[in-house]
Specification:
This protein is of the alpha+beta class and 262 residues long. Helices cover 40% and strands 19% of the residues. It is built from four helices and ten strands; from the N terminus they run H-H-H-E-E-E-E-E-E-E-E-E-E-H. Strands 1, 2, 3, 4, 5, 6, 7, 8, 9 and 10 form a ten-stranded antiparallel beta sheet that branches. The longest helix has 70 residues. It is rod-shaped. It starts with 14 loop residues before the first helix and ends in a 5-residue tail after the last helix.
Length: 262
Protein backbone atom coordinates (compact mmCIF):
# COMPACT_ATOMS: atom_id res chain seq x y z
CA UNK A 1 0.00 0.00 0.00
CA UNK A 2 1.43 3.27 -1.03
CA UNK A 3 1.32 6.43 1.04
CA UNK A 4 1.35 9.88 -0.34
CA UNK A 5 1.90 13.19 1.36
CA UNK A 6 -0.86 15.66 1.61
CA UNK A 7 -0.82 18.37 -0.99
CA UNK A 8 0.88 21.57 0.28
CA UNK A 9 2.30 19.98 3.33
CA UNK A 10 6.03 19.25 3.49
CA UNK A 11 8.20 17.82 6.13
CA UNK A 12 11.30 19.79 7.16
CA UNK A 13 14.63 18.39 5.93
CA UNK A 14 16.19 15.96 8.28
CA UNK A 15 19.27 16.91 10.33
CA UNK A 16 21.46 14.69 8.15
CA UNK A 17 20.18 16.34 4.98
CA UNK A 18 20.92 19.80 6.41
CA UNK A 19 24.41 18.80 7.32
CA UNK A 20 25.14 17.37 3.88
CA UNK A 21 23.86 20.50 2.21
CA UNK A 22 25.99 22.69 4.50
CA UNK A 23 29.10 20.70 3.70
CA UNK A 24 28.45 21.09 -0.02
CA UNK A 25 27.98 24.80 0.44
CA UNK A 26 31.19 25.21 2.34
CA UNK A 27 33.06 23.26 -0.30
CA UNK A 28 31.66 25.53 -2.99
CA UNK A 29 32.62 28.65 -1.06
CA UNK A 30 36.13 27.30 -0.50
CA UNK A 31 36.41 26.67 -4.25
CA UNK A 32 35.35 30.20 -5.20
CA UNK A 33 37.52 31.84 -2.54
CA UNK A 34 34.62 33.34 -0.63
CA UNK A 35 35.26 31.14 2.37
CA UNK A 36 38.13 33.36 3.42
CA UNK A 37 35.80 36.31 3.95
CA UNK A 38 32.69 34.56 5.21
CA UNK A 39 33.82 31.53 7.15
CA UNK A 40 36.61 33.05 9.18
CA UNK A 41 34.33 35.11 11.44
CA UNK A 42 32.18 32.08 12.02
CA UNK A 43 35.25 30.11 13.04
CA UNK A 44 36.38 32.85 15.35
CA UNK A 45 32.96 33.11 16.89
CA UNK A 46 32.49 29.42 17.49
CA UNK A 47 35.83 27.77 18.16
CA UNK A 48 34.23 25.01 20.20
CA UNK A 49 31.37 24.12 17.96
CA UNK A 50 29.47 20.96 18.74
CA UNK A 51 29.46 17.92 16.44
CA UNK A 52 27.63 18.63 13.24
CA UNK A 53 28.71 22.32 13.31
CA UNK A 54 31.07 24.17 10.88
CA UNK A 55 34.10 22.40 12.33
CA UNK A 56 32.93 19.13 10.99
CA UNK A 57 32.75 20.45 7.43
CA UNK A 58 36.57 20.30 6.80
CA UNK A 59 37.03 24.08 6.76
CA UNK A 60 39.16 24.07 9.89
CA UNK A 61 41.26 21.33 8.36
CA UNK A 62 41.92 23.59 5.35
CA UNK A 63 42.93 26.48 7.64
CA UNK A 64 45.15 24.23 9.71
CA UNK A 65 46.75 22.90 6.53
CA UNK A 66 47.44 26.47 5.36
CA UNK A 67 48.97 27.35 8.72
CA UNK A 68 51.15 24.23 8.65
CA UNK A 69 52.30 25.09 5.13
CA UNK A 70 53.22 28.58 6.27
CA UNK A 71 55.18 27.13 9.16
CA UNK A 72 56.97 24.74 6.81
CA UNK A 73 57.76 27.62 4.44
CA UNK A 74 59.04 29.71 7.32
CA UNK A 75 61.16 26.82 8.54
CA UNK A 76 62.50 26.28 5.02
CA UNK A 77 63.33 29.98 4.71
CA UNK A 78 65.08 29.90 8.09
CA UNK A 79 67.05 26.82 7.05
CA UNK A 80 67.97 28.44 3.74
CA UNK A 81 69.09 31.60 5.54
CA UNK A 82 71.11 29.52 7.98
CA UNK A 83 72.69 27.63 5.07
CA UNK A 84 73.54 30.93 3.35
CA UNK A 85 75.08 32.30 6.53
CA UNK A 86 77.07 29.07 6.99
CA UNK A 87 78.25 29.25 3.36
CA UNK A 88 79.23 32.90 3.80
CA UNK A 89 81.09 32.06 6.99
CA UNK A 90 82.87 29.16 5.30
CA UNK A 91 83.78 31.39 2.35
CA UNK A 92 85.11 34.08 4.71
CA UNK A 93 87.14 31.48 6.60
CA UNK A 94 88.50 30.05 3.36
CA UNK A 95 89.43 33.55 2.22
CA UNK A 96 91.15 34.25 5.54
CA UNK A 97 93.04 30.97 5.34
CA UNK A 98 94.08 31.71 1.75
CA UNK A 99 95.27 35.17 2.80
CA UNK A 100 97.18 33.71 5.74
CA UNK A 101 98.77 31.16 3.42
CA UNK A 102 99.69 33.89 0.95
CA UNK A 103 101.25 35.99 3.70
CA UNK A 104 103.15 32.96 4.98
CA UNK A 105 104.44 32.26 1.47
CA UNK A 106 105.52 35.89 1.17
CA UNK A 107 107.38 35.63 4.48
CA UNK A 108 109.05 32.38 3.39
CA UNK A 109 110.03 33.92 0.05
CA UNK A 110 111.34 37.04 1.77
CA UNK A 111 113.36 34.91 4.19
CA UNK A 112 114.74 32.86 1.28
CA UNK A 113 115.73 35.99 -0.62
CA UNK A 114 117.30 37.48 2.51
CA UNK A 115 119.31 34.29 3.03
CA UNK A 116 120.44 34.31 -0.59
CA UNK A 117 121.51 37.93 -0.27
CA UNK A 118 123.35 37.14 2.95
CA UNK A 119 125.03 34.13 1.32
CA UNK A 120 126.06 36.21 -1.69
CA UNK A 121 127.40 38.93 0.57
CA UNK A 122 129.30 36.37 2.64
CA UNK A 123 130.74 34.84 -0.51
CA UNK A 124 131.66 38.27 -1.85
CA UNK A 125 133.41 39.09 1.39
CA UNK A 126 135.17 35.73 1.36
CA UNK A 127 136.37 36.25 -2.20
CA UNK A 128 137.53 39.76 -1.39
CA UNK A 129 139.10 38.80 1.91
CA UNK A 130 142.87 38.81 2.31
CA UNK A 131 145.07 36.98 4.78
CA UNK A 132 148.76 36.48 5.51
CA UNK A 133 150.62 34.11 3.17
CA UNK A 134 151.84 32.09 6.17
CA UNK A 135 149.69 31.74 9.28
CA UNK A 136 151.21 32.77 12.61
CA UNK A 137 154.42 34.12 11.09
CA UNK A 138 156.14 37.50 11.26
CA UNK A 139 158.26 39.72 9.01
CA UNK A 140 161.96 38.91 9.38
CA UNK A 141 163.25 41.29 6.67
CA UNK A 142 161.43 44.49 5.77
CA UNK A 143 160.64 46.15 2.48
CA UNK A 144 163.45 48.09 0.73
CA UNK A 145 166.06 46.89 3.20
CA UNK A 146 169.46 47.63 1.64
CA UNK A 147 172.24 45.09 1.02
CA UNK A 148 174.43 43.36 -1.52
CA UNK A 149 172.20 40.29 -1.55
CA UNK A 150 169.68 41.99 -3.84
CA UNK A 151 170.49 42.89 -7.42
CA UNK A 152 168.49 46.08 -7.19
CA UNK A 153 170.39 47.13 -4.12
CA UNK A 154 167.38 46.86 -1.86
CA UNK A 155 164.76 44.34 -0.87
CA UNK A 156 161.82 44.42 -3.30
CA UNK A 157 159.50 42.52 -0.96
CA UNK A 158 159.36 41.27 2.62
CA UNK A 159 160.49 37.99 4.11
CA UNK A 160 158.25 35.93 6.39
CA UNK A 161 159.90 33.69 8.91
CA UNK A 162 159.07 30.06 8.06
CA UNK A 163 160.58 26.65 8.57
CA UNK A 164 161.09 24.59 5.43
CA UNK A 165 157.87 22.86 4.37
CA UNK A 166 155.49 25.42 5.96
CA UNK A 167 152.21 25.86 4.10
CA UNK A 168 152.11 28.91 1.82
CA UNK A 169 148.69 30.19 0.74
CA UNK A 170 147.34 32.77 -1.66
CA UNK A 171 146.64 35.99 0.19
CA UNK A 172 143.46 36.53 -1.85
CA UNK A 173 141.43 35.39 -4.85
CA UNK A 174 143.04 35.48 -8.26
CA UNK A 175 144.53 33.57 -11.19
CA UNK A 176 147.97 32.00 -11.31
CA UNK A 177 150.08 33.55 -14.09
CA UNK A 178 153.39 31.88 -13.25
CA UNK A 179 154.23 28.69 -11.35
CA UNK A 180 157.72 27.12 -11.35
CA UNK A 181 161.32 28.15 -11.50
CA UNK A 182 161.92 31.91 -11.30
CA UNK A 183 165.71 32.33 -11.33
CA UNK A 184 166.86 34.20 -8.21
CA UNK A 185 163.36 33.64 -6.75
CA UNK A 186 163.81 29.88 -6.95
CA UNK A 187 160.52 28.03 -7.16
CA UNK A 188 157.95 30.79 -7.22
CA UNK A 189 154.27 31.54 -7.87
CA UNK A 190 152.89 34.80 -9.31
CA UNK A 191 149.15 35.48 -8.98
CA UNK A 192 147.10 38.16 -10.68
CA UNK A 193 144.67 39.21 -7.96
CA UNK A 194 141.03 40.01 -8.68
CA UNK A 195 141.66 43.69 -7.99
CA UNK A 196 144.27 43.80 -10.80
CA UNK A 197 147.37 43.76 -8.61
CA UNK A 198 149.95 40.93 -8.48
CA UNK A 199 151.48 38.95 -5.63
CA UNK A 200 154.64 36.83 -5.75
CA UNK A 201 155.78 33.99 -3.47
CA UNK A 202 159.47 32.99 -3.76
CA UNK A 203 162.06 30.44 -2.57
CA UNK A 204 159.42 27.66 -2.32
CA UNK A 205 160.51 24.09 -1.77
CA UNK A 206 157.55 22.91 -3.90
CA UNK A 207 154.74 24.39 -5.99
CA UNK A 208 151.18 22.97 -5.87
CA UNK A 209 149.40 25.11 -8.50
CA UNK A 210 149.79 25.71 -12.21
CA UNK A 211 149.49 28.70 -14.56
CA UNK A 212 145.92 29.55 -15.47
CA UNK A 213 144.48 28.07 -12.27
CA UNK A 214 142.03 30.08 -10.21
CA UNK A 215 142.83 30.25 -6.51
CA UNK A 216 140.78 31.34 -3.50
CA UNK A 217 141.90 33.21 -0.38
CA UNK A 218 143.79 30.83 1.91
CA UNK A 219 144.24 28.16 -0.77
CA UNK A 220 147.60 26.39 -0.61
CA UNK A 221 149.93 27.22 -3.50
CA UNK A 222 153.14 25.61 -2.27
CA UNK A 223 155.52 24.94 0.62
CA UNK A 224 158.22 27.28 1.94
CA UNK A 225 161.89 26.50 1.36
CA UNK A 226 165.24 28.02 0.41
CA UNK A 227 165.51 27.64 -3.37
CA UNK A 228 167.11 30.32 -5.57
CA UNK A 229 169.04 33.23 -4.11
CA UNK A 230 168.33 32.47 -0.44
CA UNK A 231 170.33 32.33 2.74
CA UNK A 232 167.93 29.99 4.51
CA UNK A 233 164.30 28.78 4.67
CA UNK A 234 161.78 31.63 4.51
CA UNK A 235 159.06 33.02 2.26
CA UNK A 236 159.80 35.98 0.06
CA UNK A 237 156.55 37.87 -0.61
CA UNK A 238 156.07 40.73 -3.05
CA UNK A 239 153.13 42.89 -4.07
CA UNK A 240 153.28 44.51 -7.52
CA UNK A 241 151.27 46.91 -9.61
CA UNK A 242 151.95 44.72 -12.67
CA UNK A 243 153.57 41.40 -13.51
CA UNK A 244 156.84 43.13 -14.36
CA UNK A 245 159.82 43.25 -12.07
CA UNK A 246 160.31 46.72 -10.62
CA UNK A 247 156.60 47.55 -10.20
CA UNK A 248 156.74 46.48 -6.57
CA UNK A 249 154.74 48.23 -3.85
CA UNK A 250 155.06 48.05 -0.07
CA UNK A 251 153.79 44.54 0.79
CA UNK A 252 152.88 45.40 4.38
CA UNK A 253 150.89 48.46 3.32
CA UNK A 254 149.27 46.35 0.60
CA UNK A 255 148.16 43.64 3.01
CA UNK A 256 146.98 46.10 5.63
CA UNK A 257 144.94 48.00 3.04
CA UNK A 258 143.09 44.73 2.47
CA UNK A 259 142.34 44.20 6.16
CA UNK A 260 145.28 41.98 7.12
CA UNK A 261 146.67 42.71 10.57
CA UNK A 262 150.46 42.24 10.62
Amino acid sequence: MAFTRATGKHRAPSRLSRKSAHVAGVAALATTGVIGTLASPALAAAPDAAPGSLEDTGLNQAVITDTLAEQIDAQAEAQELEAQEAAAKAAAQAKAEAEAKRRAEIRVEAAREAKERADREAERKRLNAFQPPIAGSYVSTGYQTGGAMWSSGSHTGIDFHAASGSQVVSVGAGTVVEAGWGGAYGNNVVIRMNDGTYTQYGHLSSVSVSAGQTVMPGQQIGLSGSTGNSSGPHLHFEARASADYGSDIDPLAYLRSHGVSI
